[in-house]
Amino acid sequence: MSKRKPIISIQNIVASVSLNQKIDLQKIVEKFPQTEYNPSVFPGLVFRLKKPKTATLIFGTGKMVCTGAKSEKESRSAVEKVVKELRGEGIQITEKPIVNIQNIVASAELGGEIDLESLVYKLSRVMYEPEQFPGAVYRMDEPKVVFLIFSAGKLVCVGAKKTKSSNCSKKKNSSTTPLNQLFLLNF
């Protein structure tokens, strides 16, 4: 395994949003013809932004789901922009949206190959069945995240809720973050 620093990047952030009110989706379609809405197929309306490049699902219940952001800040910014655009076209939204990060997907390039066969013996809660999937699946208890680890030295982390404590990233001088725990194993 190479001693270079891992290259970590956030691929996607999923945030749930509550507006605490009902929303008239048909009125949004009239004001924003570029939105996608087919209630016979899916009950939500898709509202896409170019900057930040995100898609926000809006439901009549006043719930929203924002996907595609690359940071928590960008996710919150996208929600604020959608709400601002809706208000600008006369859609009544009375309260500030409540945003909760639900899932962060991050990838990392570790800079060397990983012996997945020996990894199985070094970690508990790891599953590796190369006939079914080319990577090892490592489930952590705390934080509750899942790593997909590939022999080429790449991994994907899903299930994180924060980037600061960085459920998926590497903190200085901490052996408790998920990536540090993996690095301590000397693949």
Would you kindly provide a brief summary of this structure?
The chain is built from 4 helices and 9 strands.
List the helices and strands and how they pair.
Blueprint: E1 7-18, H1 25-31, E2 45-49, E3 54-58, E4 63-69, H2 72-88, E5 98-109, H3 116-122, E6 126-127, E7 135-139, E8 146-150, E9 154-160, H4 178-183
Antiparallel strand pairs: 1-4, 1-5, 2-3, 3-4, 5-9, 6-7, 7-8, 8-9
Features:
about 190 residues, alpha+beta, TATA-Binding Protein, 4 helices, 9 strands, elongated
Question: Which second-level CATH architecture of the largest domain applies?
Answer: 2-Layer Sandwich
Q: Using only CA atoms, what is the Rg?
A: 20 Å
**What do we call the CATH topology of the largest domain?**
TATA-Binding Protein
Within CATH, the superfamily of the largest domain carries the name TATA-Binding Protein
Could you walk me through the main structural features you see in this protein, from its secondary elements to its overall organization?
The chain contains four helices and nine strands; from the N terminus they run βαβββαβαββββα. It is α+β, with helices and mostly antiparallel strands. The chain has two domains: 77 residues, 2-Layer Sandwich (TATA-Binding Protein); 80 residues, 2-Layer Sandwich (TATA-Binding Protein). The protein is elongated. 22% of the residues are buried.
